[in-house]
Amino acid sequence: MTEPLSFVSAPDPQWWRPEPDAVGAVADETRAQPLVSDAAGAPLAFWALIGFTFVLLIAPQDIFPALRPLRIGMLAAGTGLGALLIDRLGRGLPVTRMTREIKLAAGLLAWAVVTVPFSYWPGGSIGLLTDLYLKTLAIFVLIANVVSTVDRLKKIAWALTLMTIPIATKGVENFLSGVYVRGGVDQTVKRIVGYEGALTQNPNDLALILNLILPLTVALFLITPSAAVRTCLFGIVALQVVGIVVTFSRAGFLTLATTLAVSVLTSTGRLDRRWAWAVLILAIVCVPLLPADYVSHLFTITDIDTDPTGSAQDRWAQQVAAIGYVVGHPVIGAGLGQNILAMNEVLGPAWLMVHNAYLEYAIDLGLPGLVLFLLLVVASVRSAGRAARIGATRPGGRELSVLANGIRTSLLALAVAAFFSPVAYHFHFYYFAGLAIAARAIAEGDAVAAPLEPPAAGEPS
Q1: pTM of the model
Q2: What are phi and psi of 192, to 5 degrees?
């Protein structure tokens, strides 16, 4: 999959300038983008995106091995990108809408390519680039362009929410059945086997996926009028939370706590705030019901020396060593994906990835790579927040506002989880960053189509 190279461009030379936040600036910012005429384009590309997401999370090829030779994930992604290209060029549109986030991602990709000749293992860097990172960026651009209406944004949220049901159910089933990871250093703390999918095999990864989708499920709960459907969504939220807990993931707990805190602090409507506080209070009340082993495992967050498995101590030593490596190699790092070799050089042949996405970028691509990624994170969070604010000021914009706020919450939760997860080049961040771009484009497209007005009397805010 090399299509993403066709829309690589240099980073915005004025990325450092603050974005205009006044609603009146929306028209100026979007004048070059035909957002209104683009609103309902590329239906095949959108459904191909849904299909790719299903393959990514549910992994039907692992359930039915006969599907493996078909490479259905690549087939879905290729179909989506091809349909997007045909649709946009056929309507006289650019290959992709160019946003600050897409320019930063292009700059990050360009820097990764530039550093390949200096990599510890150039072949390994090229392999990661072609096997994973380009595909991740391709899906990022696909999401940013085809999730172009509120209805499509809701469909994505529903698809992700429903896909967590088998994932979380499998985690709970493994916990109740005693299906644990074997062969660890210490079996005092038993960890469940995850769901058989590329992003959920490890219990920490399973907790991360559930944490990231949880805010979108909550957003659907808040915007769904049907009491029966809301009851089902509440049940799914409960299942997601239980699925996170049974992983015994410390990073999962911190990410969940971040999600709850952000939800309380960013809820805007009076009813939404009441729900957020109710969930927070319920979570606090349920703390004594948590398994004793889980609670004791969480205490190792503040006192790593008490971790009987030794993983907390090892990861702390690894991160200290990683910072030392970055200080010694601030500009040109070890090369894309080569943090394992860099850590072998510092700590000996452990052959372990750095469990910190920020340090992955810093070790692999130096401080320029880390800075570009941080700017991309900030820009994505700001785009989701802007979409939430614009939606809140428009009559009938509550659905977009709540969904955008859910995306922002997911991104902020991921910003915390990234300190503990080696997911720098994976789909986790880029999927939700693409949704943030899409939400902002929807909001600003609506704003161009009709002037912003204060909410009418009685309109929920």
Answers
A1: 0.83
A2: -70, 155
